Amino acid sequence: MAAVMAESTLALSINATLGRHVPRVHLFADSSRIDNEIGKLTNLSPYKLNGQKTHSMVLGILQNMTIQDSYDWFLIAKDSTYINPFVLLRMIDTMNWNEPVVMGEPAEEDGRCRLDTGMLLSHPAMRRLMQNRNLCTTLTADDDQLAFEKCIQLATNLSCQSLHQGVRYEVWRAERADSPAAHDSIEDWKHSPAFRRALVVPRLLSDADASALHDYFVRVEMARADREIGKMEAELSRLAEEEARETGEAISWPPALPPFAKPPNRYQVPTWEYFTLTEIFRSEPNQNVRRLEGKDFDDVAEVVVAARAQVESEEPELEFVQLRNGYRVFDPRRGMDYMIDLTYRKTVNEEAENRFEADNEAAAHEESNLKEIVVERRVHVSRMIASTQLMNQAPYVKEDTDVTVVIPVASEKEVLPARKLLARQARLCLSPTEESRKTRMVVAVFPSVDTRSVTAIGNDMEELKRRCKRSLLETDVLPVHPQVSWTEGKGTAAAAALDDAVDRYGATTIYLLLSPHADVQKEFFDRTRINTIKHYQVFFPVPFVEYHPTISGMEMTEKEEKETPTEQAREAALSRLRDGVEPKRKRALIVQKEHGRFDSQDFSCFAVYGVDYVAARARLGGNERRNDLIAAFLGQDSIHVLRAVEPTLRIRYHKRSCDMESVDTEDIARCVDSKKENVAAKDQLAKLLFHEK
């Protein structure tokens, strides 16, 4: 931490230059010297002397801030002193902080450190200063700076050290040029090695001095970093060559990166993605090409610029034409690798290529012999994984949390799917193991549902409760009275159901919203409890969505499929589709590509703690029309969204409708894309529409 005595507007400069590199810079200023610019700083502590010395006020404020135990090193300096942040950070990274020491420029007459060149105190020395600061009340000195210097010496009982653990506290004091300003003398000083490694340059006169010094030392540090990078690259190349000789394998590029991982089998071979400046071709089952936009566009644009810079630095005579091809692949150990094919135009002289035939040609014909040729260059680019950091440890999760399952039934056509879901749930309760965790099954019924259907659902719930008595299962039918019509989007109906459920059952439990068309296994509830974390994470599983049974061929048993000619089965399927016959599946719904697909755009089922839902609900508004509720949880710093493929959550096929008047255009696009892609696989549609001749 740096504590700066602010006496003028120079404090703004040291706050800007040092503050970018030091974890904390705090300014202390006499309130009588604070102008409008300094007064706007948030890291300023003003004080009134009231006849006391500056050190008494500053040390008292530091004690009240209770920060002496938060930092390993403390720098105390005046705002007229330039501190080189790069040298400072190297110093504190080199020295051991747990020894009491005060570093600085020793005064001539005694062992105190000079305040005008700054003082660096270790953590133990700072603790001594805070504990014994009352000893400074007996000091008598006319000058504030001298009193501050003697106070630190007396309270810490330490002499000033300019050399500690082999590290020197470098102060640059040199004759100035014709002008006393430092920025006029840098051109003369920069030839001195002592100036380039200086930590402190005192006696700044203006902001121009601070700015010029900082700009110079930034250039020095960049040159130093380039030299270090060059040394490191040479060392890495040497080590890579030695390893290649020992292992017999080729040298990997870039140096120090491991080679591409060898896939364990042919199914896990990494796929290269092809891209242009407008489109990207991904390896997806139902989509061949997508527009290049967003982060992908930024990534490709940056890589193409880097590839062009490499080629044009080696061959400046080339004229760029276009990006011909681009490929990229991700490796978890290397990062992202690219192959960039660039097209250039080059002007050449035909005679230069055949000098023996052109020796006697006149100079007047040289221009007519010029021609343009197309040149192709391939550049390999690697974007290494950098700036990695460990994520904060996730909170502790208990698996015995209560879960309230909410099934919204917003229309009459959802009654039968909901009753089938309850029947499947009743069969899950027949397992011999007892369940000690409490689960509540709630069917949220909307006003448009017929009363006879509500009665039937109530009877099913009673039967479910009777069968699941050993499982501590509770059941309830919840009448919902939404503020807007339930016909205005599934997201609106889901929000209305959860609103009433949280009001009735409280906000301390996990709420699992299920589509009436869902088909779940018992393990799904266990994963819901583990993946839903209070004040931390909501769980949006990626369900397995069933294809249209008529198109996918699941309306016939395997025996019927073998006995029925292909053309006859095709005509029968087309006839049922034309007549609008409700499909009836005759095979078990299993997780296979012929039966359906994992739909990453389906957000109809999710789990959230009631208190987190209440906090996120305000972001949606009271009467907004939506197709799902994922927007409420996106872009929040405190709540994470977990998405994971969930084979035990399956969505039965049903006619899906999208609210085209949703307030969110992305919500509409997501719903429409999901609806189209969940009809059937491409090969199934092709077999249905095109017959072989």
Characterization of this structure:
The chain has 693 residues and is of the alpha/beta class. Among the domains are: 2-169, Alpha-Beta Complex (Spore Coat Polysaccharide Biosynthesis Protein SpsA, Chain A); 266-352 and 368-384, no CATH class; 403-545 and 597-666, Spore Coat Polysaccharide Biosynthesis Protein SpsA, Chain A (Alpha-Beta Complex). It is built from 22 helices and 26 strands. The strands form six sheets. Strands 3-2-1-4-7-6-8 form a seven-stranded mixed beta sheet. Helix 2 (36-39) links the parallel strand 2 (25-30) and strand 3. The longest helix is centred in the N-terminal third of the chain and has 41 residues, at 207-247. It is extended. The chain starts with a strand and ends with a helix. The relative contact order is 0.06.
CATH class descriptor name of the domain at 403-545 and 597-666: Alpha Beta
CATH architecture assignment name of the domain at 403-545 and 597-666: Alpha-Beta Complex
Given the C-alpha coordinates, what overall shape results? extended
The chain-level structural class is alpha/beta
| Number of alpha- plus pi-helical segments | 22
Approximate strand percentage: 15-25%
* Spatial gap, N to C terminus: 82 Å
Poorly predicted runs of 5 or more residues: none
CATH-derived topology of the domain at 403-545 and 597-666: Spore Coat Polysaccharide Biosynthesis Protein SpsA, Chain A
Q: Order the strands across the largest sheet as they lie in space.
A: 3-2-1-4-7-6-8
Largest pleated sheet: 7 strands, mixed
